[in-house]
Amino acid sequence: MKGQSPPMGSGHFPDGDLTHACFIRKISYVVSDGSTEEPVQDVPKLGGDNPQCYGLKYFGFLDPQNRFTLQFGGPGGSCAI
Question: What is the arithmetic mean of pLDDT over 63-80?
């Protein structure tokens, strides 16, 4: 019998409210010349092993303060598939 998976972050699924679930904002990356760039296109569909346990949502450019943002989390539980 498998054990229980723990909650991720606050235990809330991503819902667009950055006070509910974990988030990463101002996403950028370093290119070969050392400069930083932001994503230029949407990220392909993202998913996890068991959507009843955890979720991940990419919002793209959310607003000027948060810029490119993703949110993740979930309650965990019986996640064996």
Answer: 91
Is 5 in contact with 79 (CB distance < 8 Å)?
A: yes
For the entire predicted model, the pTM comes to: 0.78
How far from 8 is each of 3, 36, 44, 56, 80, CA to CA, in Å? 15, 29, 22, 11, 16
Check whether 6 has a pLDDT greater than 90: yes
Alpha helices for the chain (secondary structure H): none
- The total of other beta-carbon atoms located within 10 Å of residue 29's CB is 9
Please give the angle made by the CA atoms of 23, 24 and 28, to the nearest 5 degrees: 165
The residue to which tokens 């993703």 are assigned: 70
- Which pair of tokens denotes residue 10? 């606050």
